[in-house]
Amino acid sequence: MTETIIKLENLTKKFGNFTAVNSVNLEVRRGETIGLVGPNGAGKTTVIKMIAKILRPNSGKILIRTNHSDLQDLRNVSSTISQIGFLIDIPNFYNMTAYQLLKYFGKIQRYPKDKLDNRIDELLAFFKLSEWKFERVRNFSKGMTQKLGIIQAILHDPDIIILDEPQTGLDPLARIEIRKYLRELQSLGKTIFIASHMLYEISEICDKIALINYGKIIGFDTVENLALTLKTSELNCLLLEPLDAEKILPLLNRIDERLSPFLDQNLDPKISKIPILYNPEHQGLKLYFNGKNESKGEILKILVNEFESDFTVISFTQPKTSQLERVYSQMVEDSTPEGPIKLKGVDIKNEK
Predict the structure, then answer these.
(1) CATH number at 4-221
(2) I want to staple 190 with a disulfide (CB 3.0 to 4.6 A). Which of 27, 144, 185, 340 is the partner?
(3) Domain boundaries 229-319, corresponding CATH code
């Protein structure tokens, strides 16, 4: 096991009579990418602002490991920690040029002076902002300002990177660029903590997901392990060519009969009335199965070998995004402000 680098112990924050964060316990290990996911008002930004020392907790502790030391109470650590980079909520900057702004951040984060200009140019080029280097920030679009916010968070090459809704305001191509860069940071062993409501982005890059609602952690694990709480699991099977419309129904009945031991025959009708669906637009089958890994292997084997004359399988996946969407929806809907919830016989407590 790698060492714990951030540890939240019974972290609580109140605003008057409103409890925004309620006794949160969470551990982030070195090199992990953790996604903090929850509805608006669930407490995501409040948690991050407390880690950034913008807000003070009413009770509980934030422990952090810096400069290869032991875990220390954040209250006793310098406010200018060169090992941590933050993007807090929607960034607002002084009306300086991009270069002036990044030069300022580089200096206060003690990045080597002789390397700072090259570092600024490198990041501006990656995020396609080189032409705007000497433009004032007030002329930037929302997406460009967001990119600049991400650049200032990673400018000083921190070991720990904490991002609050980093994809806000970005177009699809920019989101792809951000995911690419985050994967590069992962490959360098950086520890990344991301708060977001964009489940696809989270499922693509995070090692573990922390689900938060009413200020409490209601689930913390990998997407795959969280999915074990689902009432059913799904597989997507992409076909080379569309099925003949006149043969679809009898074919689906044959598939259903052959795969019956592995399919979810007690499927919640709110999800689907039948365990096999065909989508002509995407030329694919969606199968609701019993969630077992060995069942996936058997299903693929049968579809490829026994239905070879009916269709050709070109892709067979268990989509993480749809799994996370359903885990998220189910846990959030079933959680309450009162405390731990019970889901499919498993107590989901506010700890890991």
Answers:
(1) 3.40.50.300
(2) 185
(3) 3.30.70.100
